[in-house]
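debug: dumping io for the single-chain case to check the tokenizer round-trip. Nothing else runs in this session.
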Amino acid sequence: MELVDRVALVTGGAVRLGRAIALTLAQHGAHVVISYRTSRDQAHETLERLRDLGSRAQAIRADVSDAKDVSALIARIQRKFGRLDVLVNNASIFKRTPFATLTESAWDAHLDANLKGPFLCALAASRLMKRRGGGKIINIADWAGDRPYRDYLPYCVSKAGLIALTKALAKELAPSIQVIAIAPGPVLPPPGMTPAARRRAVQRLPLKRWGSPQDIASAVTFALGATDFITGTTIYVDGGRLIA
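debug: decoded output
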């Protein structure tokens, strides 16, 4: 897919991985819409940077786990641009949830944001994409969707579900829409991770270094632009963590 003058929605695009993805898409010529829920100030900072790159960018507040918010988000994109070519389901929460103190509300929060949200966005976005002949959906998963680790049970389950959702959507939306998951490994350390823990994490990696948000953004542009003959698969950008 050629990205020049295409319209892309990056959920959770105000900060961290989402910001890197949004800026990289804009650098490749896309008009980028970022959604945010609580990061209002960061969203407007990112919006300025996107517009400096020549993108007809928009920042829209939306809770992706709320069907009404998602419908309104896609409707605004349709009114503004008349099309949507790319959806990057990036919005996510990642909180430590030790099993001994795990609650139903923590479970629901992770599954709502990390799995229900991408489903709702894909459902609404795909309908608009099909009117223009197709598009691509990129789901930001996690290597822990295949190899869960302790103290993050709802998060890991939600990302495993997102990998399964990628495969199911690829079947449902073929041939006009391709659906691909990107699974990051150690790219951004969890809040509160000590320097010692970071060093231990690196020692488990075959590549012996942390990745960066730009590594994930580059994988997204690869998935969008390298070929249109990939769908229903997961690309691991994890420094080899899955095989370690």
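debug: round-trip ok. The mean pLDDT is 96.
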